[in-house]
């Protein structure tokens, strides 16, 4: 059994903040599963993470006693050719892309570098998570459903397209919905629910226990992570898990972390009135950076919340532990652990923040552990807004 360590590529980890404040890069969700789950399926072994020091207590690196460890970049999708090339590495050898970026090494990687000639699917920037989600959903759908039989679709529903492009796991409830798979597959995970009147247009991934409320309109390429509940209109959104946008309002070309809540009527713009190119705040660089995109919506870190009828401008980045409420548009970057309105933001009270997080997580039978609190305090002290 191989000992495999998924490492955070330094540049990608920095550019994927605020989502990577609270997790190793490999635990980002893309498509249906996380990068770590993809690798565990593609290359069985004993897995751990090489990540930031303050995350290491919760996500420690476990190294083989004989030093024969396989290090793999946590932002890369596995495929058969890439896995074969990685498994062929000799002790001390690295594998790099044509660009020179190292995607794997065996041991210290100091005995030479092999060049991988193929293309890889990987995430380097925040917007890659939604821009490349179409391909990610399709890859995961093919892998997870190969050789398996879907649960039948209720006759109260209407299916448009090839039935092989719909897969319903055990325990899922789908009634009175319209599902269109002509543009991409739809995966409905274990114990998920699609309520009556909902319209889904693939590619879409609903993970276990996720819910689409009555009348919800979900366009591809969208991922609803475990225990997410959504309503209103979503278009090309990646929700990591345990987050809610349960009411009317629009969210498009967006990425939402865990334990977030968007109140009723919350809407986020994904297109400037000028139809011009979009810039996004880079926490790593401390400045706005060009994306080359026309469409980019809300990027929100874990444990952040927006009150009812909140309006977000195009390409707003919200850090970890933010609580915004009231009328008007906030700035297009809100630093972590700030709360308030357009009339003024203040640093969050951490005792009150932890009380709220504890209650929210308990609703899903998840504990806010001392290790979690330590991670969040480290993020607070990093002062990403300075």
Question: What does the model show?
Answer:
- With 386 residues, this protein is α/β, with parallel strands linked by helices.
- The protein contains seven helices and 35 strands.
- The strands form seven sheets. Strands 9, 10, 12, 13, 15, 16, 18, 19, 21, 23, 28, 31 and 33 form a 13-stranded parallel sheet that branches. Strands 4-1-5-7-6-8 form a six-stranded mixed sheet, with no helix packed on it. A five-stranded parallel sheet has the order 11-14-17-20-22, with no helix packed on it.
- A hairpin with a 5-residue loop joins strand 6 (94-96) and strand 7.
- The longest helix has 13 residues, at 133-145.
- It is globular and about 60 Å long.
- 48% of the residues are buried.
- The mean pLDDT is 95.
What order do the helices and strands come in, and which of them pair?
Blueprint lengths: L1 E6 L2 H6 L13 E2 L2 E2 H8 L2 E6 L18 E5 L6 H8 L6 E3 L5 E5 L6 E3 L12 H4 L1 H13 L12 E3 L5 E3 L4 E2 L3 E3 L5 E3 L4 E2 L4 E3 L2 E3 L4 E2 L4 E3 L2 E3 L4 E2 L2 E9 L2 E2 L4 E9 L2 E2 L4 E2 L10 E4 L4 E4 L8 E2 L4 E2 L4 E2 L4 E2 L4 E2 L8 E2 L3 E4 L2 E4 L2 H13 L7 H13 L4
Parallel strand pairs: 1-4, 1-5, 6-8, 9-12, 10-13, 11-14, 12-15, 13-16, 14-17, 15-18, 16-19, 17-20, 18-21, 19-21, 20-22, 21-23, 23-28, 24-29, 25-30, 28-31, 29-32, 31-33, 32-34
Antiparallel strand pairs: 2-3, 5-7, 6-7, 26-27, 34-35
